[in-house]
């Protein structure tokens, strides 16, 4: 098979590329039917107060249980879903599932802490995104304060879609809004004024560097910003006790990471909610 390509015309089609292309098309097709086949699942990872030894939040993280590929991580399919226009349907499923889980826990007498879901920049192109979210909360009789929407900094870079007013809409409806992976994108401080978010999540790349001496200009700067703007702060990717101690010293008490728990299905999350001490039981 030959293919015309600009520079070296009539280059032979790269068989490896060809098979990757086929994989990608197969993935797209499978993804289209993943919701209908009930292959999506939410896992939950706790956010803990290190000093209080309590759970202050849960982040819902999407999992795709593919019939032949097994567990496909969101890193491989969320971007595909965005590119082929499936993300809206997936985000709607995530929102629905999260609200349903919150109300189920409430009915079972487990008072869940605030739950966070991740939305994509594409979701904020929808003019009715705020209404869709509040309608879902209403349907499940879940208080808006029980839900936090995580968005990335990239969403704030241009505001042609009126993202700032949508963030304001979510906040005035009573939801929390977090900036995920804070510090890794293009974050001008002015944005924090224009986008009235409630939470900053320190990206795990900064937490990873927190070994040894307990000074760290980036973490210190971010904790300063959070204090100045009166925002909640969560450190992501906390894997060991040295990092947790350093974060405490630097002024960040709320942490999420493998040190406490890996993301896990609802049943495991419910066990943590009933017995938070499980998360602090590991030998330090
Ligand atoms: P994120 O929102 O920043 O989520 C945190 C990621 O870090 C998760 O990966 C989590 O499993 C992982 N993580 C947590 N603690 C640790 C740790 O201590 N060490 C390490 N090495 N990793 C840790 P995951 O679940 O694979 O998700 C990856 C990304 O996919 C998420 O990053 C988020 O951007 C996206 N994503 C996940 N669920 C959804 C969803 O429902 N919708 C959308 N649009 N994106 C999602
Ligand atoms: Mg997140
Ligand atoms: Mg993150
Ligand atoms: Mg991340």
Automatic annotation (TrEMBL):
Entry superkingdom: Bacteria
Residue ranges occupied by any EAL domain in the UniProt entry: 24-277
Protein name: EAL domain-containing protein
